[in-house]
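Lab notebook, entry 576. We have the chain sequence and a SMILES string for pyridoxal-5'-phosphate, and the next step in the workflow is to get a structural model of the bound complex before anyone spends time on docking refinements. Request logged below.

Task: model protein plus pyridoxal-5'-phosphate, output structure tokens.
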Amino acid sequence: MNSLLSLYQEIILDHNRSPRNFRKLKHATHEAQGFNPLCGDKVRVYVEVADHRIRDIAFEGTGCAISTASASLMTEFLMGKTLEEAQQFFESVRHFLTQPPDTPPLPGFDLGKLAALGGVRRYPARVKCATLGWHTLQAALSQDAQSVTTEKDPHA
Amino acid sequence: MSTSITSERNRSPLADRMLSWRDDFPILRERVHGKPLVYFDNAATTQKPRSVIRVMTEYFEKQNANVHRGVHSLSEVATTLYEEARKTVARFLQAGSPSEIIFTRGTTESINLIAQVLGQVVIRPGDEIILSELEHHSNIVPWQLLCEKTGAHLRVIPILESGDLDAEAGSRLFGPKTRILALAHVSNALGTVNDLAPWIRLAHERGALAVIDGAQAIPHLPVDVAALDCDFYVFSGHKLYGPTGIGVLYGKSVWLERLPPWQGGGDMITSVTFQKTQYAASPQRFEAGTPPIAQAIGLAEAIRYLEAVGYADIQSQENRITEYVLQRLREIPGIHLIGEPRERAAIVSFVLDGIHPHDIGTVLDQQGIAVRAGHHCAMPLMEHYRVPATVRASFAFYNTLNEVDVMIEALGKTVELFGR
Ligand SMILES: Cc1ncc(COP(=O)(O)O)c(C=O)c1O
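Result returned:
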């Protein structure tokens, strides 16, 4: 099960079993719903932004281990970051997840624990699971809490 | 399960025959991720026996020409083969005549064709089309499109927790406005075999037409359209050990004679002037353009192959596998079978507590096992059972009990990996 272990590393299994920041945000300034029509995964991402900084970020939903762990790791990483930093992170993570397995990460970017998600690059059908939370965050940040929720069909 | 028990158990005349049929499918010798392929995604598409691959290759190498269009020899050969294929299908379904067999691209196209042409002649605003909660999207969406266009309404026969149709609630839906009943013979997600006769009778009592989606039935059980008395019956070649790109629409001739054409083009006319075009009779009226010739020939060969194996053996072997897999699955803690229908074709859907079906699908794939994880194009059905997706294992007569053991063991490892 070697390559499986590289997909389902302990970090992923752990974040799947006990996802971090898995809750609703009462004072969200931004939120969006992401949906992967292929597998029925649904995620809702909440962000509370003040002074261009992510004060709080959380998510809810149902999904596979990959999409749950990815969203969970995302909230851990982005907590307290500025919007510019979050945007850079999004670009770097998307690049990392959608390039062939041996592509080096974008310069100046330390993946840290997110490197654990790299296993999906050998499972093209699963890449969308790993990017779902990130695309949903993008959608949330590009609009106000007042505006309608996007039913986003993410293209990895 | 020790190997000695396994081989003991498999040493029966039926199992021996099945193993020899298995040799006819070259792909079953492939390895996936270094493991022998265990192909349990037969409801998505079946594998092809060598004879089907051979007749199609032979056609392209020696017989290829367009049909119905040439006086030259090859065209006549191709036309004969294509029309022979139609006769094979007609005989296979017990249709009254080959002119009742229309070749299409598949089940989906067959349903769209019949929905659109019926829509022109039998549907008025306020009319009702009845289907069921367990339909595949391809037996829902074409009717929805028709309703949008004509002002007709959909009525839905609910299912019981078992995955069987709710006969009591369902029969109350039939009324004076009922025009069409569109019903699956076998559910692709649950394996439910619907007892069609009473439903078709109900439809006919109201003067409505019965359209049966046989995509998942025809690989598992003999279909006699005359005995069923359905007005239309559709299926896909690729789920019946034949190629993709070919499907069948059977229709009673009394209907086909009265229905307008579907697409316009070559081959579907008797004469064309800019003032008036005379349409050909069925089946040509519904087959505009160059048809899938090689695919029709491949389908006919698949039918011959299937008849040589015989539904009796197919059903014995598939029942044996299905019973065994149900028994073994029930041993796994935290498993939930989705649907426990009274009569089941060789299809089993399940979920495991705390593990998403896609993760199960990926872990099984690593062990060489192909199953389907998803909503199976039956989102209303998933909604009914309140699951986003299921794992579906679907079997063919070439599958073995040993392969079931491989899957059960892999499921055990999955549970371990995710350590609930
Ligand atoms: C019950 C049922 N109906 C319709 C279809 C559609 O068949 P096709 O994709 O071959 O047109 C399928 C196959 O997925 C099916 O299982």
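Notes for the group: Chain A has a mean pLDDT of 86. Worth checking against the assay data. Chain A touches chain B at residues 1, 3-4, 7-8, 13, 16-17, 38-42, 62-66, 68, 123, 126, 129 (CB under 8 Å).
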